[in-house]
Amino acid sequence: MWFKNLLIYRITHGDLASSALETALAGHVLQDCLQMELHSRGWTMPKESQHQFVHTCNEHLLIAFGMEKKLLPAAVINQYAKDRAEVMEQHQGYKPGKKQIRDIKEAVLIELIPRAFVQRQTTYAWIDTAKKLLIIDTANLKKAEELTELLIKTVHGFRITPLTTKISPSAIMTRWLSGDEPPAVFTIDRDCELQSANDEKSTVRYAHHVLEADETSRHIKAGKKVTRLALTWADKISFVLQDNLQIKRILPLDIVKESADSPESADDVFNSDFAIMTGEISQLLPDLIDVLGGEN
């Protein structure tokens, strides 16, 4: 249970006690899509064997947002509609008008929805009740928005705002690749992206490439800023920092993996991973926020 991505929000209002949150989530459970529904949203159990909607480890809570979506590509609808339109043209002797085409597409949609395949997706969120942080494991901003909208609807009085820092990640990352040394707790890895600020948004990407200060500073002097940089924290966790403070490609290194015992069951693995992850990332985030000038 290691998150691969972090979208971080500050909880500005709402007391999230584990028992109260359990009751609230149980009132908005994910239901199967009805015959004529295109999607369904709700809460699922993060750990099915536990039969609870909140997995608790000390002050850390894990919840799971579920979504069922019927797969009905526009290309399929358009092809069916095209075939129907050709038949109609043959019968009436002229091409269907715009209203007729619209009516055909609506009829096709109604016919195909019950036959569409259903895809279920789960997005996990971690709530640090002590530090009042909501952290979502997704790189997709729309998924995060769907999760937060339902959480605000589910928990009375709950409010959040995206966490921001006094200094932008882009400014700090640009300084580091201009020659400034990062704090000892962070080391620069071999992936980065630089982008110009003009309308063309010309971009230079390095992947698995040793980042030489002379080379990267040349791009920076030409007007580019760093928008993405791979880092390692305390020789324990590698990740990619984005210019919007989004953290991607989190990977625990061997020193973290070896600190755990060897659990025997899937439940033990789940519990151990979540405990280690929350413990380590709870130390990483303050170091990162401090480097960026503190929370704004």
Encode the helix/strand succession as letters.
EHEEEHHEEHEHEEHEEEHH
Low-confidence stretches are: none
What is the β-strand count? 12
Number of helices: 8
Overall mean pLDDT stands at 90
Total number of distinct structural domains: 3
Helix content: 25-40%
Query: What spatial form do the alpha-carbon principal axes imply?
Result: globular
Radius of gyration: 24 Å
The largest β sheet comes out as: 7 strands, antiparallel
Percent in strands:
25-35%
User: What structural class results from the helix and strand content?
Assistant: alpha+beta
Write the layout of secondary structure elements.
Layout: E1 7-13, H1 18-26, E2 39-44, E3 55-57, E4 60-71, H2 74-92, H3 98-112, E5 117-128, E6 133-136, H4 141-154, E7 159-162, H5 169-178, E8 186-196, E9 203-206, H6 213-221, E10 224-233, E11 237-242, E12 247-252, H7 254-257, H8 266-291
Antiparallel strand pairs: 1-6, 1-7, 2-4, 3-4, 4-5, 5-6, 8-9, 8-10, 10-11, 11-12
Written description of the protein model:
The structure is a single chain. Helix 2 packs across helix 3. The protein has 3 domains: 108 residues; 41 residues, no CATH class; 123 residues, no CATH class. The longest helix has 26 residues. With 296 residues, it is of the alpha+beta class. The protein is globular. Strands 1, 2, 3, 4, 5, 6 and 7 form a 7-stranded antiparallel sheet that branches. Helix content is 36%, strand content 29%. The model has no long low-confidence stretch (mean pLDDT 90).
Offer a concise description of the structure.
It is built from eight helices and twelve strands. With 296 residues, it is α+β, with helices and mostly antiparallel strands. The longest helix is centred in the last third of the chain and has 26 residues, at 266-291.
